[in-house]
Amino acid sequence: MRHSDFRALFKLALLSSAIGATGSGLACGGVVDTRGGGGSSSSGGSSTSSTSSSGGSSSSSSSSSSSSSSSSSGSTSSSGSTSSSSGGGCATGNAPLVDTYCCPEGTSCPNVAFDDPKSPKKCTVDCQRLCDAVAPGASAFSCNWVDDNTLSYYCGACGIGRVAQGTPDCPLGESLGERLARQAYYERASVLAFEHLLAALRAHGADGRLVARAQKAAEDEARHARVFADLAALHGAAPMPLERATEEPTLFALALENATEGCVRETFGALVTLHQAANAESAEVRAAFAAIADDEAEHAALSWDLRAWFDEKLAPGERARVHQAHLRAVERARHDAAAPSDALGSALGLPAPARALHMLDTLMHALQQAA
Ligand SMILES: [Fe+2]
Ligand SMILES: [Fe+2]
Question: How many C-beta neighbours within 10 Å does residue 353 have?
């Protein structure tokens, strides 16, 4: 899809949500039906943070100003990142199966691990039990089988955008400066994600235009990181350091990342960026989001073009798993969009939950129609 197509879709979603989220009869008009993959229910309601991405980065707002320390009490060793904010944990990563994650027989567990048909199931895993172990207080969102004995998990509302799995989560922060520094952190995380993607595109002989677009996206994200780090510095804050992961992701892992982070989080983030560019309270914050908005629309377009490229490279079973992961990512984004925001969310120009949800649903519905 072209960059200009995305700009048109974003305009549609913003206009539609301006009408639909204000209580008119159109409020549910654009809801995308994702019940075919992973269920339509989100675990919203217990989440205490709302996260909206701005391209490869994230601006989050919490419903409470209190913040607890990072915590992880998994009963088994796991790889991933965990942090806790506003009374709810956040963690992504992989963990081996232990019996305590299993949904007890005769019990109804509403949020269970998505089944990989190639893996013999040892039990039906209850994602909430897994999340209670690795990120106490997090509202579980999803977990999936990776292989016979390993689960990936995504618990609570973590930083979003094009962020590779295992990227340490950055705490929400309690001041505007800290939120801007967090934005800069996730912009940097996006640089690393695009660099991994770029290496894979080159290694697998991708078309030169795709390679050039990924290269430019990495450069864009580095510039975005500087924009927000400079603005955070004016407010007395600095981004947390971020190290490049040494392990190069597989092509399948990158396809999953593109379908979830790129085609959902970064795509919705690009739309939210436009909202922030128009609605942030201060002129300097509006200008910062305006400076990255057009780049982010192009990154969204790139994600959807990359989806087609990955589809050609993957085996049919892998393609099906990527598609399922995409549907679950949409549900996860709806869960985050519907969570309440706070005063800092308003300062950053984040849409209120009803509007955010309407924007997301309208955009995803339009993209489904166009794909
Ligand atoms: Fe960005
Ligand atoms: Fe981006």
Answer: 18
Ligand nearest to the CA of 6: 2
Closest ligand to Cα 270: 2
* Cα–ligand 1 centroid distance for 105 (angstroms): 46
Nearest ligand to residue 216 Cα: 2
Element (H, E) at 144: strand 140-147
Q: Please state the pTM of the whole predicted model.
A: 0.69
Cα–Cα distance, 305 to 301 (Å, whole number)? 6
pLDDT in tens, 139-194: 666 777 777 788 877 776 554 458 877 788 787 888 999 999 999 999 999 999 99
- Please give the distance, rounded to the nearest whole angstrom, from the Cα atom of residue 55 to the centre of ligand 1: 4
- CA 187 → CA 87, 222, 228, 371, distances in Å? 25, 7, 8, 27
C-alpha to C-alpha distance for 255 and 332, rounded to whole angstroms: 18
- Residue 240: Cβ within 10 Å count: 15
